[in-house]
């Protein structure tokens, strides 16, 4: 019977109201006991049903063994096989019935008890507490003496406040009671109706199954009658011949039974894990994780749609994490993000790691030919500033990026194993990789290799030009210089363990790099050479930004005076970009790289815009933030600014260059780019987090320098970046790239700096006129 409590009686707090509450509370307590009992009985029924299914399956396997044993009798073998298949179908129907029973009775009623009845109990506790407070206030108000006016007023005020609070909480309690009484009927009936529908479906399925099997059973019955007659006839004949019939034992060997350990819903493993949030607070939340359909997903609640952490396990790696305070942590790294997880024990952590690794291996075996289907999808790039809509997309993407990068010598096959048609790239190394090698590169860490997809990610123009300046042939001449001498063979596609060892030795330990000796010249002599070689570069900022002629460096690359434009002369082949040092023509200013320490080689190559030589210096251990004490502690990134190459700056930034490191004059890369009027470099540095508020020794920041020089483009970029920064700070959007207009403007400047730099040379051209 549905019980309700009147709201008017609640305000009166009459004995009728208290009696109604007592009756409702007793009814709810009894309801909870009944529901708990029903849920326990349901669990026992499901467990018994599952045990029945296991026994039934063993019996069905015994029938199949008997059918195989009777292979010389076609009638027996066919009939027993058909019957065992039908029994298997019935087992499946039983399994579905028990699964639906668990969802309709156990899960749904348990949720009602845990959620709705818990709310009722919480409301009851609050009501009892405020009721007691009201009683105390009434007693105190009655006991106060008339002549004590102050105590009278205090008691009156307390009583008034307590009554107001009592009415509010009592009304909430009555509302909770009425809602519960209204909902309990629907919840109980819904769960039972779902349970009965499951039974109805089960019996319909069984009826349909045996309706199809009926004609066969009828024909078999007719055959059986004939067999009985024939058997009786044979018996009489054999009795006449005084023959004996031996009986054969039909038994099944349980030790040979094979059980299907794969779950019907495709879930390889599931359980609770703690997940570290990606926000600024790095909070940990407990979620229900599962590995299913080649994906890692989690749920917060039972009815929530699964949140996909890794869309394709083939594109990720998993590793232990021992550098944080929490125990039992591991990390799942994908091309676009990383997910930090924590298990409840070391055994569970190992089990999860093994499950992920097994799923990766299984996915490679079963879905190796399906990787090309991923080309039709798109996913945002983590290193890109742009996250706008496709209608405003102006960056190179998809097959165009793939085609341009694969045209570079050596890029048509994987840099490490030689597999054809690589679809992944390491942007700080400038190489192309197959999907398996890309996963190994991601496990090295971003300080060694930054992996992107040539088909899934969005490519900024300066980054695409960087890829086209290097390539597999150039990098392998550096990182595999001693492979043949050491007698080491490169791993072949499919040899994952060999690949992991080889790639670690190649890029982390750098075992195959030809370690040339550092110059034995005295330090004073090297300092003089450095000073003489760099004396020619100590020009005024404006003059350095607009050289009058195109010069050629010692690698055969023609370097133009525009912002970030390099081109190969028609007489130079692509393979000549990385000739041996002995066969290359030395520059008139700089010494052979073998006479320089790696830091100085990187410093000079950055000014020369020579990316192959820069990559060689980094391979020999050059500090990307090396400061030249002979030249105001300038860094390779500042030299790249003076050299006027946007691609060189991008290469240094991708390899960890500090965009805010300043020289002795207090000027960082952004200062120098502003002084020289290099608009494309200013845009790049602002995107990479340069501090535009920093001042030099004269107290000038980049904006004041650009205003004095009347460079409208750079002033626009600096002011727009400053406005965007202030807007994000005021709205609390720390770490966000900015609004769509801000991204569009910076995207346009990046396009012009990489593809049409002549449009940004107005300032330099105007300054030359004067």
From TrEMBL:
<dbReference type="InterPro" id="IPR045258">
    <property type="entry name" value="ACAP1/2/3-like"/>
</dbReference>
<feature type="coiled-coil region">
    <location>
        <begin position="117"/>
        <end position="147"/>
    </location>
</feature>
<feature type="region of interest" description="Disordered">
    <location>
        <begin position="538"/>
        <end position="588"/>
    </location>
</feature>
<protein>
    <recommendedName>
        <fullName>Arf-GAP with coiled-coil, ANK repeat and PH domain-containing protein</fullName>
    </recommendedName>
</protein>
<dbReference type="InterPro" id="IPR037278">
    <property type="entry name" value="ARFGAP/RecO"/>
</dbReference>
<keyword id="KW-1003">Cell membrane</keyword>
<dbReference type="InterPro" id="IPR002110">
    <property type="entry name" value="Ankyrin_rpt"/>
</dbReference>
<dbReference type="InterPro" id="IPR011993">
    <property type="entry name" value="PH-like_dom_sf"/>
</dbReference>
<dbReference type="GO" id="GO:0010008">
    <property type="term" value="C:endosome membrane"/>
</dbReference>
<feature type="compositionally biased region" description="Basic and acidic residues">
    <location>
        <begin position="367"/>
        <end position="378"/>
    </location>
</feature>
<keyword id="KW-0343">GTPase activation</keyword>
<keyword id="KW-0967">Endosome</keyword>
<feature type="domain" description="PH">
    <location>
        <begin position="266"/>
        <end position="361"/>
    </location>
</feature>
<feature type="repeat" description="ANK">
    <location>
        <begin position="665"/>
        <end position="697"/>
    </location>
</feature>
<dbReference type="InterPro" id="IPR038508">
    <property type="entry name" value="ArfGAP_dom_sf"/>
</dbReference>
<dbReference type="Pfam" id="PF12796">
    <property type="entry name" value="Ank_2"/>
</dbReference>
<dbReference type="Pfam" id="PF01412">
    <property type="entry name" value="ArfGap"/>
</dbReference>
<keyword id="KW-0175">Coiled coil</keyword>
<keyword id="KW-0677">Repeat</keyword>
<dbReference type="Pfam" id="PF00169">
    <property type="entry name" value="PH"/>
</dbReference>
<dbReference type="InterPro" id="IPR001164">
    <property type="entry name" value="ArfGAP_dom"/>
</dbReference>
<dbReference type="GO" id="GO:0005886">
    <property type="term" value="C:plasma membrane"/>
</dbReference>
<dbReference type="GO" id="GO:0005096">
    <property type="term" value="F:GTPase activator activity"/>
</dbReference>
<feature type="domain" description="Arf-GAP">
    <location>
        <begin position="399"/>
        <end position="520"/>
    </location>
</feature>
<feature type="compositionally biased region" description="Polar residues">
    <location>
        <begin position="546"/>
        <end position="561"/>
    </location>
</feature>
<dbReference type="InterPro" id="IPR027267">
    <property type="entry name" value="AH/BAR_dom_sf"/>
</dbReference>
<dbReference type="InterPro" id="IPR001849">
    <property type="entry name" value="PH_domain"/>
</dbReference>
<keyword id="KW-0479">Metal-binding</keyword>
<keyword id="KW-0040">ANK repeat</keyword>
<comment type="subunit">
    <text>Interacts with RAB35 (GTP-bound form); the interaction is direct and probably recruits ACAP2 to membranes. Interacts with MICALL1; the interaction is indirect through RAB35.</text>
</comment>
<comment type="function">
    <text>GTPase-activating protein for the ADP ribosylation factor family.</text>
</comment>
<keyword id="KW-0863">Zinc-finger</keyword>
<feature type="region of interest" description="Disordered">
    <location>
        <begin position="367"/>
        <end position="392"/>
    </location>
</feature>
<keyword id="KW-0862">Zinc</keyword>
<dbReference type="GO" id="GO:0008270">
    <property type="term" value="F:zinc ion binding"/>
</dbReference>
<keyword id="KW-0472">Membrane</keyword>
<feature type="repeat" description="ANK">
    <location>
        <begin position="632"/>
        <end position="664"/>
    </location>
</feature>
<feature type="compositionally biased region" description="Low complexity">
    <location>
        <begin position="379"/>
        <end position="388"/>
    </location>
</feature>
<dbReference type="InterPro" id="IPR036770">
    <property type="entry name" value="Ankyrin_rpt-contain_sf"/>
</dbReference>
<dbReference type="InterPro" id="IPR004148">
    <property type="entry name" value="BAR_dom"/>
</dbReference>
<comment type="function">
    <text>GTPase-activating protein (GAP) for ADP ribosylation factor 6 (ARF6). Doesn't show GAP activity for RAB35.</text>
</comment>
<dbReference type="Pfam" id="PF16746">
    <property type="entry name" value="BAR_3"/>
</dbReference>
């Amino acid at each position: 019977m549905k019980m309700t409590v009147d709201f008017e009686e609640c305000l009166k707090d009459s004995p009728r109201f208290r009696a109604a509450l007592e009756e409702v509370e007793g009814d709810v307590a009894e309801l909870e006991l009944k529901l708990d009992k029903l849920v326990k009985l349901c669990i026992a029924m499901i467990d018994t049903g599952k045990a029945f299914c296991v026994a039934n399956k063993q019996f069905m396997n015994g029938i199949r063994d008997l059918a195989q044993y009777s292979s010389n009798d076609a009638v027996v073998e066919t009939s027993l096989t058909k019957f065992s298949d039908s029994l298997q179908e019935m087992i499946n129907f039983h399994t579905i019935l028990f699964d639906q029973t668990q969802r309709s009775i156990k899960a749904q009623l348990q949720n009602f008890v845990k959620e709705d009845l818990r709310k009722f109990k919480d409301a009851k506790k609050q009501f009892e507490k405020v009721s007691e407070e009201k009683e105390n206030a009434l007693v105190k108000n009655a006991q106060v003496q008339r002549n004590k006016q102050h105590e009278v007023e205090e008691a009156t005020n307390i009583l008034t406040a307590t009554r107001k609070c009592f009415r509010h909480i009592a009304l909430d309690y009555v509302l909770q009671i009425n809602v519960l009484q209204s909902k309990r009927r629907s919840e109980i009936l819904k769960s039972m109706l779902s349970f009965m529908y499951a039974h109805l479906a089960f019996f319909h399925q069984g009826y349909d199954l045996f309706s199809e099997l009926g004609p066969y059973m009828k024909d078999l019955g007719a055959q059986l009658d004939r067999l009985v007659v024939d058997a009786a006839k044979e018996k009489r004949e054999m009795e006449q011949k005084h023959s004996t019939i031996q009986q054969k034992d039909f038994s099944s060997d349980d030790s040979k039974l094979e059980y299907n350990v794969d779950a019907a819903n495709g879930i390889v493993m599931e359980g609770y894990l703690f997940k570290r949030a990606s926000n600024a607070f790095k909070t940990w939340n407990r979620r229900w994780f599962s590995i299913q359909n080649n994906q890692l997903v989690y749920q917060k609640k039972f009815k929530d749609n699964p949140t996909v952490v890794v869309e394709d396990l083939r594109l990720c790696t998993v590793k232990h994490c021992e550098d944080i305070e929490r125990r039992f942590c591991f990390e799942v790294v994908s091309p676009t993000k990383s997910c930090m997880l924590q298990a409840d024990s070391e055994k569970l952590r190992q089990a999860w790691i093994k499950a992920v690794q097994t799923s990766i291996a299984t996915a490679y075996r079963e879905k190796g030919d399906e990787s090309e289907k991923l080309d039709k999808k798109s996913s945002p790039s983590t290193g890109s500033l742009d996250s706008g809509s496709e209608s405003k997309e102006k960056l190179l993407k998809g097959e165009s990026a793939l085609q341009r990068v694969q045209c570079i010598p050596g890029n048509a096959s994987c840099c490490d194993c030689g597999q054809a048609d690589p679809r992944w790239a390491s942007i700080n190394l400038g190489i192309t990789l197959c999907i398996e090698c890309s996963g190994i590169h991601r496990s090295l860490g971003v300080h060694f290799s930054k992996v992107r997809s040539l088909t899934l990610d969005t490519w900024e123009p300066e980054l695409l030009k960087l890829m086209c300046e290097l390539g597999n042939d150039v990098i392998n001449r550096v990182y595999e210089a001693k492979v043949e001498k050491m007698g080491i063979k490169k791993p072949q596609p499919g040899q994952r363990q060999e690949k992991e060892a080889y790639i670690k030795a190649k890029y982390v330990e750098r075992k195959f790099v030809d370690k040339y000796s550092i110059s034995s010249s005295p330090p004073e002599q090297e300092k003089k050479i450095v000073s003489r070689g760099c004396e020619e570069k100590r020009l005024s900022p404006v003059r350095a930004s607009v050289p009058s002629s195109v010069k050629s460096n010692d690698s055969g690359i023609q370097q133009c005076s525009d912002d970030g434009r390099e081109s190969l002369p028609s007489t130079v082949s692509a393979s000549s970009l990385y000739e041996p040092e002995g066969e290359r023509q030395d520059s008139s200013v700089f010494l052979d790289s073998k006479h320089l320490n790696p830091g100085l080689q990187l410093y000079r190559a950055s000014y020369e815009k020579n990316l192959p030589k820069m990559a060689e210096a980094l391979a020999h251990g050059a500090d990307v933030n090396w400061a030249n004490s002979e030249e105001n502690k300038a860094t390779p990134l500042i030299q790249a600014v003076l050299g006027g190459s946007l691609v060189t700056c991008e290469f240094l930034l991708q390899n960890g260059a500090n965009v805010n490191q300043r020289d002795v004059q207090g000027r960082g890369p952004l200062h120098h780019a502003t002084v020289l009027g290099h608009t494309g470099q200013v845009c790049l540095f602002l995107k990479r987090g340069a501090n535009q508020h920093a001042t030099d020794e004269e107290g000038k920041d980049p904006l004041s320098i650009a205003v004095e020089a009347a460079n409208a483009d750079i002033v626009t970029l600096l002011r727009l970046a400053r406005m965007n920064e202030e807007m994000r700070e005021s709205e609390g959007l720390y770490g966000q790239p900015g609004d769509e207009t801000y991204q569009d403007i910076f995207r346009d400047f990046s396009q012009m700096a990489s593809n049409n730099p002549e449009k940004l040379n107005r300032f330099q051209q105007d300054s030359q006129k004067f």
